[in-house]
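Mods, move this if it's the wrong board.
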Amino acid sequence: MKTEASPAKGASLHLPVTPKTKRGVKTEYRDDFPVQAHKMCLLGALDRDLATFFGVCRETIINWKKNHPDFRDAVLRGKKAADMEVAASLYQATLDRVITTRQAIKCKEIYYDEKGKRVEKERVEIVEVDKHIPADFRSQQFWLKNRNPKMWSDKYDDDDDTAPKGVTLNLGSGLDPYEAAD
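Not the wrong board. Structure tokens:
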């Protein structure tokens, strides 16, 4: 492996240089690559990240996905699983929820012995505590805007050709403000 010296003041830093593949040069594909690619994709890796990890160019990753079904399937499974995990987490963040946690508390016991001397004993107990986690407004906003952009967009679209439906408001049986002013 080649090393490259960095011209720093007074010291040199040796970094490994990844050999670059030339266009048209066939790279070595190994049978353990699908497992590694799957794990990388579970961590959120994109094709360019896989290319860096395997020391190849992005086009090689695309070719491996075309030519090796096991590699393609591993990448797709990893990316889909990671996306589903994030989607589930985002959905949970949009909801109010109560979680139960375990918390240590210190208990103090005070009593008097047979001689009338005050005795204090301390012990730690683990108790379950319910915590309310409020819904995250930004997660709700993101979810709704992406789930139904026509209804939840910040932009007003006046190009809608459908006629607006009549809206009837029932404000109750209050006083008529024009009659009360007299």
